[in-house]
């Protein structure tokens, strides 16, 4: 994917990885539409970053996705990149069904059904373009599990396989599929995570993603160096050690 000259819609981009990438892509000559649930945050982003467009969207609500897609396509008919990132990460204890079930269900709705519904809402439009891109966001935890977040791990593994499968189905069309695979990044995805000294800095992560997009335009999976420890544990033959290291600080192990 070329790094400039696109019109991108990035739902879930009012903070964290989404916003960091939105700002960098905007700086590089792209027209970026930021989506999110909270109107006040969207207004703040629009005021602080002239040129960024905003659209309210709740990716857990099919009706909101439908309404937002209609608005985006009406106001930005040249849209050619959809970044289907929607994600929450919550701890679960599957030893207690009263603890985990509601969390697991909302995680699946947000992390898996959200991107599926987004892609469905824009697919016809993207297929009609001369060239278009669907960007998904999986996780290193789709390849090596964190004990405290079973459903998050599972949904991110599913996003990886969805990306692989869509790439096969869309071969020969105008639409390419590009998967971003983050490691642990210092954001507010979970309480205290933004202060985690073991997590990759948000600015460093976003800079490295942009660098890979610039220098490897044919890449189908964007892997910063930090995520390869998780991504290739099975291939290297040290998967058990990777999982042990990943979970060494997990309070559920105590």
Short key terms for the protein model shown above:
single chain, 254 residues, alpha/beta, Rossmann fold, 7 strands
Report on the architecture of this protein:
With 254 residues, this protein is α/β, with parallel strands linked by helices. It has nine helices and seven strands. It has a seven-stranded parallel sheet with strand order 3-2-1-4-5-6-7, sandwiched between helices. The protein is globular, with a radius of gyration of 18 Å.
CATH class: Alpha Beta
SS field, number of helical segments: 9
Strand content: 5-15%
Structural class: alpha/beta
What's the number of extended β-strand segments?
Answer: 7
What is shown here, in short?
The protein has 254 residues and is α/β, with parallel strands linked by helices. Helix content is 46%, strand content 13%.
Topology:
Elements (H helix, E strand, L loop, with lengths): L6 E4 L5 H12 L3 E6 L2 H10 L4 E4 L5 H14 L5 E4 L12 H31 L4 E6 L12 H20 L5 E7 L20 H14 L5 E3 L4 H4 L1 H4 L2 H8 L8
Helix pairs in contact: 1-6, 3-4, 4-5
């Amino acid at each position: 994917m070329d790094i400039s000259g696109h019109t991108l819609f990035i739902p879930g981009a009012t903070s964290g990885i989404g916003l960091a990438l939105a700002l960098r892509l905007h700086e590089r000559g792209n027209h970026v539409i930021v989506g999110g649930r909270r109107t006040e945050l969207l207004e703040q982003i629009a005021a602080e970053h002239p040129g960024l467009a905003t659209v309210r969207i709740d990716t857990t609500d099919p009706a909101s996705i439908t309404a937002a897609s209609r608005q985006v396509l009406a106001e930005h008919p040249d849209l050619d990149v959809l970044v289907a990132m929607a994600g929450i990460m919550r701890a679960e204890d599957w030893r207690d069904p009263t603890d985990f079930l509601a969390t697991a269900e909302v995680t699946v709705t947000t992390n898996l059904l959200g991107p599926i519904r987004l892609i469905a809402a824009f697919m016809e439009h993207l297929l009609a373009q001369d060239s278009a891109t669907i960007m998904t966001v999986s996780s290193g935890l789709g390849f090596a599990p964190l004990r405290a977040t079973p459903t998050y791990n599972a949904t991110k593994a599913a996003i990886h396989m969805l990306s692989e499968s869509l790439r096969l189905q869309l071969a020969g069309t105008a639409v390419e599929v590009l998967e971003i695979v983050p490691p642990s990044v210092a954001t507010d995805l979970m309480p205290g995570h933004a202060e985690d000294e073991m997590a990759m800095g948000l600015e460093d992560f976003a800079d490295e993603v942009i660098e890979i997009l610039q220098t490897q335009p044919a890449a189908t999976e964007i892997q910063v160096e930090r995520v390869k420890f998780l991504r290739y544990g099975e291939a290297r033959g040290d998967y058990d050690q990777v999982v042990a290291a990943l979970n060494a600080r997990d309070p559920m192990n105590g």
